[in-house]
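Fold it.
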Amino acid sequence: MTDKQMLTKKVVALAAATATLGLLGACSSDDTDDNSSSTSTVTTSTSTSAAMSTASSAPMPSSVQPGTPAATLAATAWETTSATNASGTEVPLTDDNVKNYVGYAYFKPDGTFTMVNLDDSPKMRGDWTVSPDGKTRTIVVKNEAGQEQSRRTVDIVALDDKEFTYRVYPDAADKAVYYDIIHTPTTHPEPR
């Protein structure tokens, strides 16, 4: 095989892995029957399942690049401080539509995350990414053994050094009804 063919093969493999990572799911609770965020389930034929399995089990990035949306998310710990509905009205954090999204989030530069409830009780952990354009955040929730439990992707509404807000939909088919989950930086230490 020529050098050009080998390079092309590597680029195609990298593109496939990157596309697969883009399908990973996003933040809510560790409640796997939660329908309020976009959750992607990929069904493949037997002939393609081995290739998808390899791509989807590819490790998350080992570090975020400075100046990227991912670097902004990893720069601080985040606390859920408010939520609003589609009309912009504030919704109590105890509301059934948003309470599963409330807590502290720690997105580490190595591509892993931990989330805890406001009382520091464990919520979830796993791997995370932000799309290069900063429009979506994806998490892969894992159990104690490191096995994938769920994948979720949410739309990012705001992401800068003062706010991280993402949008969730109670019914993924109805984009008119949504809640924006608003986080602000916190100095709250990550529970060990």
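Residues 2-61 have pLDDT under 50 and may be disordered.
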